[in-house]
Amino acid sequence: MPAVIEVRNLHKSYRDTVAVDDVSFTVGEGEIFGILGPNGAGKTTTVECIEGLRVPDGGAISVLGLDPRRDHAELAQRLGVQLQDSQLPERLEVGEALDLYSSFYRRPADWKALADTLGLSAKRRTRYGKLSGGQKQRLSIALALVGSPQVTVLDELTTGLDPQARRDTWALIEGVRASGVTILLVTHFMEEAERLCDRVALIDAGKIVAIDTPSALAAGVAGAEMRIRFRPSPQIHDGLLTGLPEVTSITRRGDMVEVTGTGNVVAAVTSVLARNQIVAEQLRVDQASLEDAFVALTGHGNHEEDK
Amino acid sequence: MSESALRRLTVTELKLFGRERGGVIWGVGFPLLLLVIFGNIPGFRTPVSKSVHGLSILDAYLPILIAFVLAMLALNALPAALAGYREKGVLRRLATTPVGPGRVLAAQLAVNVAVVLVTLVLLAGVARVAFGVALPRHAAGFALAVVLTIAALFGLGLLIAAVVPTGRAASATGAILFFPMMFFAGLWLPIAAMPPVLQHVSHATPLGAAAQSLTDAWQGHWPHPLQLLALAAYGLVFILGAARLFRWE
User: Fold this and answer.
1) Would you identify the CATH topology of the domain A3-219?
2) Topology of the domain covering A226-287
3) What predicted TM-score, i.e. pTM, was given to this entire model?
4) Are A283 and A230 in contact (CB under 8 A)?
5) What are the residue boundaries of the structural domains of chain A, listed by start?
6) Is the CB of residue B93 less than 8 Å away from at least one CB of chain A?
């Protein structure tokens, strides 16, 4: 996979605070690459250096073989950007915004088709100030795509959206990737990164803590335990399962049995149950998530209020 | 790409200017309304004796109305729009596109200057056709005074946009500057009717120098070099200051 974005030893400080401290990563063509971390971790500063909005104090960045500062004009033609907290004039209509932004690019996309894809066709004559949060977000995604970019950077894509709008947006991003666009996604939502990203860079206090696929990161959590809960029908004795090497403990809550274990514990338990013709009702399996990985790797949670 | 982008940006900014209404009502409609009201007061059209050098009150007020238009658009409409764009991240967003944020600033300036010129022509035209006021008699002097006034006032507008943090603060700053500046332009008391000390102060202010230069040229004289110089100096200082201090984000 040829590298589309290459960041090497990026450093950026504001006055006396270090925002980005030696960040390096590579994004391959057609990838959805996530930068995940709490607010203030340096995510936005990193992508602003990639977009050419900020000048790094040190390190090298190459996007599509271009330097974001030196080759800004050329890169701007090929890089679509969605900024965090960037708005449009209140009285600008959706169709006018798309038409205007498409005039900026050498090879613009058909903005009417784009508006269709993003469910904005009915809103073409609506002013920006009258749009809902989700519609504004979709418009800003449309504007990021209107220049037919090869790479897009989406910063806090779904912050402030309700769960349904968030899911719709995710489906949309998967569609964009399917059309061959490389996507750099900045987020502080674990679920979003887990759902969308091929690979994730966990960033905390300006440093990269880990880079891997979301499932590999989750699986790498030390002593990751799985928890299986079910109501056996008919009821069973603990002894049936305690003998299994994968099982570490069994607890009961009413008629529910909760089994924790490691490795292939799910397969081991279900095959024992099947052999004894026991049905596991209300079966539920919890496994380590990206969130667990984050906590394990940084030593603290990702708790913060949504803005 | 870029030429059509700039044209598209300018057309868009013009539409937004129209939808914003403030600029249209206060920058265009209100001065025209004042002209029509003054023009219909019988005594205002006949020359008054010494105090205003044999001009009718209408003659004396036309340059002041032009200064009013400029102050409204340059000190209120332009800085509020630009500071609002910066506050909302419109300029930052444009910085990530091939056109860059400089062009939206250029488009805003173009729209506001164009509206000033159109309103100026409307004011002079209505005064000529409806109320028999002569057109500016010293055309070159008038053109120069208009150009320098535009430079000085839009320079100040850009400087306001450069130093205030929000669109709201820009409006407030514009409004605070508007009243004293319009006083020295003679909105409430024509410069010629001011006591000598006040006249000197007035000639040293941007809008006072503008109103006096426009009045002189209208009456057929070459504007006083000191006032033209004052306007040029203001223009230079404000524009350099704005260029130094302006931030895109």
Assistant:
1) Rossmann fold (3.40.50)
2) Alpha-Beta Plaits (3.30.70)
3) 0.84
4) yes
5) 3-219, 226-287
6) yes
